[in-house]
Structure formats: structure tokens, C-alpha cells
């Protein structure tokens, strides 16, 4: 004789949805939708306004360019080159400052340095531009002359050297100073989130302070460091006023960083040319803005792909 082991299924009570949860969910959905809508509207505007420049005939664009890509390529090069130089300077400095504040400095000194770094982020870009013109360019010009005289055989330091110091390297230094506060603040917070047990375990096994940082802090903070670099790159790519004030721009493509004529950037070119632009020139400037929009989007997508990539030794 078999007995039935089935148990009657009772109707489960539906979870009660509170009004606050509904409001929060609706608010987040609306906020996300607004961001996507604004981004799509900007993209549509740039595309529609760029079409006349994209299909312009030879000679109709500024600088008598044969086509739009010939016109925009020097600007893209200058934008990427200056941002790359700025990150090359800012990344090790930001990581070093963040590590000093989070793991080496005494608590009072760390708090004071944190305030100073955060304060640097509030300085307007025009102030950085004035500092680059009046102080930095004058200070580094003798060093540029020495580099050209003793290392002119290296393509980056090829002569003739600028007599004013207003070169793309000076602009990159200004950009680096501008992005260091943002990158340092993010790296500092990420370093502080490292599990305390991991750090104590490394020290208990006999690791030095630097070995603990290298083995426990930096691997844990990899995605945060990449995010900080990408935010700094976004600031460097879109910076306008400081670059326009420091550079002596030209529509050229060259890697030399100490010469008077330097590659211009997209943002600085728009700021300098837009007040006097008319007709097709306006469409050409908007089209360069579309290119900058695309470059920034590609960089962010690449950064997201790097962050989401699993380490080679991770198990699936």
C-alpha cells in the first residue's frame, strides 16, 4: 500500500510593495531614460548639423581642405596626442599621491593633503591657462632649450625650440595638473576600500609595506585605477580654454613637443574659430565636435571592456 507524500500547495502571499519602493523605482527609471534621451538628442543634433560638412566639395571647407577627413585629422591627432602626454605625466603622480595619502602619510597629514587635492579640482580652467602662460611656460623654456641642444637627435625633442615655451608639452603639463585631482581622489577612495584582512595577511607573512601594496592593494584596485584614468582622459580630451590659451596652434601632424607650432585640439579649435564662423564653417566645427564625441565614446567603451575582462587566472 502506497501512501501519497504530496503536500498541498498553499497560495504564497504576494510580497507587499511599499510606496517608497515604487517611487524610488520610478525615479531611477525616469532618470536613466532622461540620460539616454539627452545623449541621443545630442548625437542626432551633431549628425544632422555635420552632414553638409561631411559631403562638402573640395575647397569649400576651412583651410581649403579637399574633404572633411583631411580637415579634421590634424585636430584628432592633436587632441589624442596632448591627452596621451597628459596621462603619461598624471597617472604615476596620481597613483603615488593616492598611495601616500591612503597608506603612508600620518592621519593628520593625509587629511590635509586630501583637502588640498580636492581643492585643486575646484580651480577654474582659465586660471590654469593663465598659470601656464605667465609662469609655467617661462619656467620650462630654458629646460626645453637644454633638451633640444643635448637631445635634439631624439624626434620628440627635435629643434627648433620654442622661444616662449608655449608648446604642446607645456599644454600637456597643464592638463596633467588639471586631471591629477580627479584621478587622485578616485584612486585614494579605491585604495581605502582594500580589505583590511588582505593587507594584514600580507604583512603577517613578512611582506614589506611596498610588497603589501603591490600584492594586495594594486590588484584589488585595478578596475578603479582604470576608471580614474578614463575619467582623467575624458577631462583631457574635452578641455578647451586652457589649451587654447597655452598653445600656438597649427593644422599640422607632428610628434615634436618642443617646437613653437603645435598640433591643435578639437575643443580648442572650436572655441577659437566658432565666434567668427559662418555658413559651412559652422557645420565643419560641429562635425569636429561629432568626431570628438565618437572618440570619447570609443574610449569609454574600451575602458569598460578592460574593466569587465576577467583576470587570466580566474576560474569561470
Automatic annotation (TrEMBL):
<keyword id="KW-0472">Membrane</keyword>
<feature type="transmembrane region" description="Helical">
    <location>
        <begin position="280"/>
        <end position="303"/>
    </location>
</feature>
<dbReference type="GO" id="GO:0005315">
    <property type="term" value="F:phosphate transmembrane transporter activity"/>
</dbReference>
<keyword id="KW-1003">Cell membrane</keyword>
<feature type="transmembrane region" description="Helical">
    <location>
        <begin position="113"/>
        <end position="146"/>
    </location>
</feature>
<feature type="transmembrane region" description="Helical">
    <location>
        <begin position="71"/>
        <end position="101"/>
    </location>
</feature>
<feature type="transmembrane region" description="Helical">
    <location>
        <begin position="166"/>
        <end position="187"/>
    </location>
</feature>
<dbReference type="InterPro" id="IPR011864">
    <property type="entry name" value="Phosphate_PstC"/>
</dbReference>
<keyword id="KW-0813">Transport</keyword>
<feature type="domain" description="ABC transmembrane type-1">
    <location>
        <begin position="76"/>
        <end position="303"/>
    </location>
</feature>
<dbReference type="GO" id="GO:0005886">
    <property type="term" value="C:plasma membrane"/>
</dbReference>
<feature type="transmembrane region" description="Helical">
    <location>
        <begin position="240"/>
        <end position="260"/>
    </location>
</feature>
<keyword id="KW-0812">Transmembrane</keyword>
<dbReference type="GO" id="GO:0006817">
    <property type="term" value="P:phosphate ion transport"/>
</dbReference>
<dbReference type="InterPro" id="IPR000515">
    <property type="entry name" value="MetI-like"/>
</dbReference>
<dbReference type="InterPro" id="IPR051124">
    <property type="entry name" value="Phosphate_Transport_Permease"/>
</dbReference>
<feature type="transmembrane region" description="Helical">
    <location>
        <begin position="28"/>
        <end position="51"/>
    </location>
</feature>
<keyword id="KW-1133">Transmembrane helix</keyword>
<keyword id="KW-0592">Phosphate transport</keyword>
<comment type="function">
    <text>Part of the binding-protein-dependent transport system for phosphate; probably responsible for the translocation of the substrate across the membrane.</text>
</comment>
<dbReference type="Pfam" id="PF00528">
    <property type="entry name" value="BPD_transp_1"/>
</dbReference>
<comment type="similarity">
    <text>Belongs to the binding-protein-dependent transport system permease family. CysTW subfamily.</text>
</comment>
<dbReference type="InterPro" id="IPR035906">
    <property type="entry name" value="MetI-like_sf"/>
</dbReference>
<protein>
    <recommendedName>
        <fullName>Phosphate transport system permease protein</fullName>
    </recommendedName>
</protein>
